[in-house]
Structure formats: structure tokens, C-alpha cells
Amino acid sequence: MYSRKRMTALSAAGMSAALLLTACGGGGEDLTGPADGEAGDNKEINIALIAWEEAIATTAMWEVILQELDYDVTVTDVDVAPMYQGAANGDVDLFLDTWLPITHSDYWEDYGDQLEDLGVWYDNAVLTITVPSYMEDVNSIADLTDHADELGGEIIGIDPGAGLTRVTKEEAMPGYGLDGDFELIESSTAAMLAELDSAIAEEEPIVVTLWRPHPAYAQYDLKDLEDPEGLMGDAEQIHAVGRDGFTEEYPELSEWIGDWEMSDDELASLEVLTVGEDVESPQDGARTWLSENPEFLERTLGEAAEGLEF
Q1: Each residue of 169-218: pLDDT tens digit?
Q2: 87 DSSP 8-state letter
Q3: Signal sequence: where (predicted)?
């Protein structure tokens, strides 16, 4: 969302709807639910994954949780439009990363009546302008005007085409009077993070564009600058979404997902283990995180968490 550069190693960007249907329903396998007379959840589930940081992290987490609970889990890498089409058609069961009310509003308008909103699990999805916490005198975006010299007149940004870049350049910088003293350096997410890492290692001043959720918040001690004019936009919510009939076919899982919430710290620390540069297996990283956060399992799964080991 926001056109920001995303993790692409797991992406099937541009996948057509036809390929999605083949990936999800090939071979004539019936994934439509339990046979008449059977009780409990359908134990076969197909989760759609768009290769965004928080989606990779949480999909890997639920994948290993459900595997431990004897579900047969398939994860289908897909792009945004085919994901919504496939879920609306009933060809995938679940998607964990719907941003509302803004980012996915067009898709929700087109397909929402064919889907089930299973609940909000994260409610602080925001665009930010951020500094290291050791910059004690900079607490608001407006404060940057007094520190232009020490910051070299630069705000380190990401991709030129990103929504975050547009909002920073067209809304926040002129709105707070920064456009005369600062230049937004447009590069890439990777380049921005490299600059941030280098500056923090030397405890030098730096200001960057960032967003929540992001693993950088677990890796560094950062401070989002206050935005009293609201020029960076309001926070969005991230929803889990199922295909039509999901709650009926997966009553227990629907309850777990309804109880699922993650804090900034929880999500950032999960992302570090599942989408960091050195991560080889998001699933292994998710298992490590779950082993270190048993209280998350207890509050999310209730009695079903008993005996689970990761």
C-alpha cells in the first residue's frame, strides 16, 4: 500500500486471476468445507499472501500455528487484485492484510459484499517522519526548521513513486514550512534504511520517512515526530478477511482471528525475525517468535494454546 517498495522475494507480482485459480483449486481438489454431518473446522485452508512485510510476517505466523493444530495449510503468493478476485470467488479462504478505510477502499467497494471481515488486528498503520530518539530537541515535524543545518537540509526518503513520498513532499513539507530549507532525498527503502543504520551507528542526526508497521522500530530506538496538523494522514486499520462462508466453515479459527491483536512492539519484533535481510525462512522466524511470546498464544488461542510448542 501507499506504493511503497515491498519485499519481493516471495511475490508473484502481476499474477493473473487465472493463475491464482489454478494455484488454489488445481487438480479438482475440494476445499469447500467439511462434509455434511462433520463437526468442527474445515482443516484445509488456503491463505493468500501479498509480499508486504507485515503480511509475510503474520501469514508465516498463522501458517505454523495452524500446522501445529493439524490444519493442512496452503499459502498462495499473489498480487492485490487477483487476491480480492480469488477470495470473492471462493478460491482462497483467507487474507490477513486488508488496509481500511483508505488503502484498499476501492477493492472493498467492489468485493466487500462477497467477503467476511473477520476483525481488526492492528490499528496503527501510519505514515511517519521519524528521527532517532537521541535527537532530544526534535519532537515535532515543525521542529525540523530549527535543525536544518545539522541535518544537512535533507530528509531521507524512499521511492519517488511511493505515496509516502508524495504525502511528505506535497503535504507535510510545505505545510510545515520545510520546503525552503529541506530537500526530500528520493531513493529506495533499502537506501533509506542504510542511511538510517549508518547515522545511528555514529549517533549522528538524521530524519527519514517511514511507516508503521515496520521492523525498523524493533531494530532501532526511533521517535515518530508529532504531526499536529495531521498532514501525514490518519491511522488505518489492518483487517483479516475471509471468503463468504468462512465463519461457518471455520468457526474456531474465526474466533481465534477475532481475538487476534498485535501491538507495535509485537509486530515489529515478529517482522525482524521473518522479513529481515538475513531471514532464510519466515516460518522458522515465526516459530522462534512464538516460542518467545507464549502470552500472545494464550490470549489469542485460549485453551487451544495448551501444549503448543515452537
Answers
A1: 999 999 999 999 999 999 999 999 999 999 999 999 999 999 999 999 99
A2: H
A3: 1-23
User: Residue by residue, what is the 3-state secondary structure of the chain?
Assistant: CCCCCCCCCCCCCCCCHHHHHHHHHHHHCCCCCCCCCCCCCCCEEEEEECCCHHHHHHHHHHHHHHHHCCCEEEEEECCHHHHHHHHHHCCCCEEEEEEECCCCHHHHHHHHHHEEEEEEEEEEEEEEEEEECCCCCCCEHHHHHHHCCCCCCEEECCCCCCHHHHHHHHHHHHHCCCCCCCEEECCCHHHHHHHHHHHHHCCCCCCEEEEECCCHHHHCCEEECECCCCCCCCCEEEEEEEECCHHHHCHHHHHHHHCCCCCHHHHHHHHHHHHCCCCCCHHHHHHHHHHHCHHHHHHHHHHHHCCCCC
pTM above 0.90, yes or no: no
